Amino acid sequence: MGLAVDVPGEIGQTPTVMTYRIGIDVGGTFTDFVLVRRDGSLRLSKSPTTPQDQSAGILHGLEQLARAEHRTLGELLSDTAAIIHGTTTADNTLIEMSGAVTGLITTQGHRDEIELRRGYKEDIWDPALPPPPPIALRRRRLGVPERLDYQGNVLVPLDEEAVRRALRRLAKLGTESLAVVFMFSFINPAHERRVRELAAEECPGLSLSLSHEVLPAAPEFERTSTTLVNAYVGPKIERYLGALVERLRAEGYRQELLIMQSNGGIMTPEYIVRRPVTVLSSGPTGGVIAACAVAGAAKTTDFICADMGGTSYDVCLIRGGRPEVKAGWNWHHRYLVGLPMVEVQSIGAGGGSIASVVAGALQVGPRSAGAEPGPICYGRGGSAPTVTDANLLLGYLNPDDFCGGTMRLRVDGVRAAIIAQIGRPLGLDAVAAAHGIYRLVNANMANAIRRVSAQRGVDPRGLTMVVYGGNGPVHATAQAEELGIHTVLVPKTSPTFSALGLLLSDHLVDETRAYITPVGRVDLLRLNALFAEMEGAARAVLAPRATARRHAELRRFAHLCYPGQTFDIAVPLVSGKRVDARALRATVERFHALHEELHTYAARDEEPILRSLRLSAVGLTDKPEIPTVRRSSMGSRRGAGRPPIKGRRKAYFGGRFVNTPIYDGPRLRAGQRVKGPAIIEEPFTTIVLQPRQTALLDRHGNYRITLG
User: How far is it, in rounded angstroms, from Cα 533 to Cα 676?
Assistant: First the structure.
């Protein structure tokens, strides 16, 4: 099953000679593809995700792209300049807890740091909340005598015999991957490096993650957690990327495979396997990059972007046209990852989210039917009612033309399952139960937007909502009404938005160095030397990529906090090649201003603490232009013409079924308007317009939906 379609308004003929660029994003239910031709036109495609081996679904999707281009798979791949891939392998590994058998060697007395978790609890009101499943069981967490002070001076030498005993014990316990975390190793990594040498002697072939290479910065818990996650997901990521590269090469691909990172940049598999944790949550990041590009073309810089797929709902607040990249307090699947990540918050709300009655109350998500077996209406053996099943019963989805006509949804069994599992326990008929599922999942998603905006002190009512994902446009208009948001933007490319975002991303190398001192005692020579060291390391990584090397953009940050604070703020440094006293004073003043903006106060009478320095090297890439849509041929005097209606069906609006017009999305032209209640069907998504809403298709291919 699968379909490839051209973006309307673009050139549809296939040139005889072309070079392709392909973005591939693996989701929980579908794998999305965007192909860019040499002339700049796009082709969108979807293929079912194959959870057991994601590369199988990728190759299947590439085959259907090749057929759509009237070429063999080998011809397509040999003429492809770049494949950029966003993978959920790391996320799935943590969700399923299916990573490597992991051990930890740490400074004696610190092996339980990972369980103390800084006292953090995801739900402080649940006294029975269990701890997260352990990445490394306590019997595999071993302390050894060694100790450095905060300047990297040796207080207790490394006990090498104790390290050898620990390595032998871990080998007997079947350890496959080892995390090494020593106190202040980010200042002096000699002890961690020596453990690597000893491990090569005692346990050849053991995968190692050294904390000074994964996260060379304080505090200890953040570094321990990040290094353990890296060790846990690393072997699986390395095997997956290695197998995918080999399969692509066997089919004729000769260029580099590029991988999306959670910081919003792309890099090679060779770079990724040094720190595999950087691909965690990389899929949603691609969608945020695309949202910034599309919203920017539409002259929108402040907005909420929301991605609703089959499994999750991802929300990101954008201010000034750029997402916030946050380092430090990033929790994913109950573990903290302290590396820089685009700040995306996710909840378990998607088309496959399962509805159930728990303790007499309706609950939707976070459990998902996923790709297999999927919703009941997929006809693959699913038995639990999902959001997609409810949408079908309410008339929002076309059972005969789902996913571009490649799937037929089965109505049989959906009504009976919703009555039996939802309606009867709650005393509702099938329609009321289905609408309850629809309303509750919308409320959950609206609350996620409220939480994200409230954390930044922003009123969502003044923002535009940029919506994407296959299921997003079905629900977005109802969410916007609940939130009081007046404008919703739905791009035509929204069903494969994350894949498009991969093609709009740049190479990105993040380097961090610890430097802990009050700002009044900063040694500018040392500070500039550290930045020079980071710049050299970043440029060395970018050097093999000619375009990125020629067009590199460096961004410098100082991580500051007030005395006694646990968390710091990344403050951009505005300076030339070198940081002088004046630039440092300006950075401190900016820190005070940012702290006041985020936390409503600034303690200007206190001297901030410098915790670390960070440098981001951005290697700019060639990017496709945002596609445009042909305008209606009708003259301006007569307006843009009547939008094409493909039929009518009964859909649920305002507490009753309404004979609703169904509009043919691919035939709509820029300037045409659709008034609600109405449904617009695109090949891979459906846009549901509530009563008193109007959708205008702009020249950039965005449905601009206004409320009221």
Answer: 58
